[in-house]
Amino acid sequence: MIKTVHNQLKNLLINCHLVDGDIMSIAFVLVSTVPGKEQEVYNKISKINYVVEIHPLFGEYDLIVKIDAQDFSELGKVVIEQIRKIDGVIDTKTLAGIKL
Q1: 35-78 pLDDT, tens per residue?
Q2: Which domains does the chain possess?
Q3: SS in 3 state form for 52-67?
Q4: 96 pairs with which residues across the strands?
Q5: Which uninterrupted H or E stretch holds 28?
Q6: Dihedral sign, CA of 48, 54, 57, 59?
Q7: How far lies 65's CA from each of 39, 50, 95, in Å?
Q8: How far apart are CA 13 and CA 30, in angstroms?
Q9: Local structure of 40: helix, strand or coil
């Protein structure tokens, strides 16, 4: 039993990091937008809970968004239920951070 709890805690720490004593999950989301909708999408994403940074990009993707959430489930909800539903978002690619 103790070994199982230890393994579960270890897996949790591998997939999350500590921020001010709380365990958090971090991800970077690359966002492609409809040409001409970059500013509108930027403004909408910047108002989403858990979004801590957003930067415009040149190249294949138009924006990179940093998300700090309570867990990977919450990260998924932010990407799927909020970012991908914004009018003007064509595609997203999520890069989940880990603790080394």
Answers
A1: 999 999 999 999 999 999 999 999 999 999 999 998 889 999 99
A2: 2-96 (3.30.70.920)
A3: EEEEECCCCCCEEEEE
A4: 27
A5: strand 22-33
A6: negative
A7: 14, 10, 10
A8: 24
A9: helix
